[in-house]
Write a structure and sequence with these properties.
This protein has 479 residues and is α/β, with parallel strands linked by helices. The protein has 13 helices and 17 strands. The C terminus is likely disordered.
Length: 479
């Protein structure tokens, strides 16, 4: 293999060798601000408006938000961070799950440093009056926020709520962004930021997204992993709508787990609410390192399972196939091997992805799942020295040389690691157009075997490279 490189190639090698994982900024000891109120008064709209992004689902259907959603929010007018919480609606007439939703909302009244009691300035409801009575014991940290004040003429309507007796009141329009400066000024006056601390987050926690079709046991797994009833668990398909986080430590390794809404076939996504839930779940792939794709061991694969896996693989995320409810599968000799081989058949391009059997309900197989997630995370973040990589490339090319025919002939000059998590590599060759997919697959397989990356997807980019003599010749040929 010819090692002569151009100046441009040398620069690329230097950049690859100096590449470091991105370091994020994180906060601790932030004041907690909870947005509470009855359904459909605009809590999630205000939450998203303050965050300046759509994280909570917004829809006219009452009761869309079920699990509390937390996020660090940088208040724009004062450049101060808070932990902002969007909660489920407080209801008088409660149906299935409503008691759990209300209980989770009320739990934040104690822990919040400030409570934003959101009401509709145009319409007072019995729930407002009853909830106001509940909030009076926290009156010192309650701010009444009159939403849907879409024009200055509506601002005085908030005084209808003055009889509730809360000292702080402000009129806003979450939909149009009116009154947010006044709201943030009030937050600044009422909150203590002295304990807030910024620190570098090197992203050493394993961030896992639990995904799969509805009612496959995702929330049950999250609750078992985090050791709490963080997600509402129910036999009703589609219970989880927003992405809910759980955090825990396993064998000294921190984990962050995302429980997402179940993804079902598009023709079954009738509600706009579920449409946004599916989008939110798909976006969770961007935020995680490892996707645990839960598959009902009794029902088998669905088309949506294949789509989730394809999305995760395309983004370079680690993938673990988890055959859940394995305790309910009849004991058959070599049953797991048969199920694993069936998965391998349907996911031929993902032979690297581990397949595990577990029961989220009983805990069987969960320790092995966590060990595997940590191992996948480690491989995703492995850095390979350029010298070590190219020594291996020489061995691979010597063991299986490129074709020698005129039209398919090319030379592999060198390779560099472009990024970690996802793992991306560039192979610089004399004629990229001559490199067949089969040879790229060969290189990818050898990397998995020889570089300790057997459990993760690898991205290979075939790029053009010229020697210094070739570059000089090209310059001489210019007019």
């Amino acid at each position: 293999m010819k090692k002569s490189r151009s100046a441009q190639d040398e620069k690329a090698v230097d950049m690859a060798e100096s590449a470091e994982p991105s370091v994020r900024t994180a906060w601790r000891n932030l004041p907690v601000v909870a947005v509470v109120g009855r359904p459909n008064v605009g809590k999630s709209t205000l939450f998203n408006r303050l965050l300046r992004k759509r994280k909570a689902i917004v829809d006219p259907t009452p009761g869309v938000t079920r699990d509390p959603i937390e996020s660090v929010c940088m208040l724009r007018s004062i450049e101060k961070p808070i932990t902002l919480v969007d909660t489920g609606g407080y209801k008088l007439d409660r149906e299935v799950l409503d008691d759990q939703v209300v209980a989770r909302s009320l739990s934040y009244l104690e822990k919040a440093d400030l409570i934003l009691f959101l009401v509709d300035v145009a319409k007072m409801a019995p729930e407002d009056e009853e909830f106001a009575a509940v909030l009076r014991r926290y009156a010192g940290k309650v701010v009444l926020v009159g939403n849907k004040a879409d024009s200055p003429e509506r601002d005085p309507w908030i005084f209808e709520y003055a009889r509730f007796g809360f000292s702080g009141m402000v009129a806003v329009s979450a939909e149009h962004g009116r009154g947010l400066d006044e709201l943030e000024a009030l937050l600044l006056a009422r909150l203590d930021f002295s304990k807030a601390e910024e620190y570098p987050d090197a992203h050493d926690d394993v961030r896992v997204a639990i995904m799969g079709k509805p009612n496959v046991g995702k929330s049950t797994l999250l609750n078992r992993l985090s050791g709490s009833e963080r997600s509402i668990v129910s036999d009703i398909p589609g219970t989880t709508r927003d992405v809910v986080e759980g955090r825990f430590v396993w064998k000294g390794k921190p984990f962050t787990v995302l429980d997402t809404a179940g993804i079902r076939r598009k023709k079954k996504v009738f509600e706009a609410v579920e449409y946004y839930s599916v989008n939110r779940a798909i976006k969770a792939i961007d935020e995680c390192d490892v996707v645990i794709l839960m598959i009902d061991a009794q029902e088998g694969l669905s088309d949506q399972d294949k789509k989730i896996a394809a999305l995760a693989e395309d983004k370079g995320r680690g993938i673990i196939f988890a055959l859940n409810k394995w305790d309910a599968v009849p004991g058959v000799k070599n049953g797991f091997e048969a199920a694993r081989d069936k998965l391998r058949y349907f996911f031929g391009q993902m032979a690297f992805a581990p397949v595990l059997a577990l029961s989220a309900k009983t805990g069987e197989g969960v320790p092995k799942l966590l060990d595997m997630a940590a191992q996948v995370f480690s491989q995703l973040n492995q850095k390979i020295e350029t010298s070590k990589l190219n020594k291996k490339v020489e061995e691979w090319v010597e063991a299986y040389p490129p074709p020698v025919a005129t039209r398919t002939k090319f030379k592999v000059r060198y390779a560099t690691q472009l990024s970690i998590n996802p793992q991306r590599f560039a192979f610089f060759v004399s004629r990229p157009e001559a490199v067949l997919d089969s040879y790229a697959t060969y290189l990818r397989n050898r990397m998995r075997e020889d570089l300790g990356m057997a459990l993760i997807p690898l991205r290979l980019e075939i790029r053009a490279s010229r020697t210094k003599w070739e570059e000089r010749g090209a310059k001489d040929e210019r007019p």
